[in-house]
Model the fold of this input.
Amino acid sequence: MNLVIVQPVKSVVPVADFFATLQLRYNFLSGSNVHSQWVAFEKNKNPSVNPVEFKTMSDTRWASQVRAVSAISSRFYCFIEFLRHVDQTDVNRDRALYARNILGEIDQKFVYCMLLMYDVLLETKGLSDELQSPKLDYLKAADLIESLIEELEEYRSEQKGTDYFEKSLDIATKNHLTCCSNTLERQKKNPAI
Done:
């Protein structure tokens, strides 16, 4: 199931770009100096919450996509602030430029994909876990597949698209990210997935 999901997702350019940006985020934060800065920054912003460790993603383990999207969703505001902080204060200008480049990739489309993929991945996780279980129940798996197909069909509705567009616009605006023009309507045609 992991590969069945990964390949279609990668054919949708904004979603593929979203996952590529998540990988850039991991690459940036995995450096020892940046990692320690991130942990300190996160503890300073959210002292009562344990810092989130961003992990790399794997095409063959969809659970790694779930963890990556969940991590960025839960710390999105803090991560944006951190990128701006590094860009403006880091004496290592290569690192500052890297932070600025990642920040430049994060816009309303990124936020839209983050919200959408978070929900879709949570919907698919139960089936993925069942299919990987050593005690696989084929009848239960078949029921889960049928339910998942019905649930995913709902994501193609005009209302769902409008809801994600409005939420992503709100988050992007609050974080001073590039937004789609208010004069442009959201694309009316759903992509073929």
In short: The radius of gyration is 18 Å. Residues 2-174 form one domain. The first helix runs from residue 2 to 10. The mean pLDDT is 87.
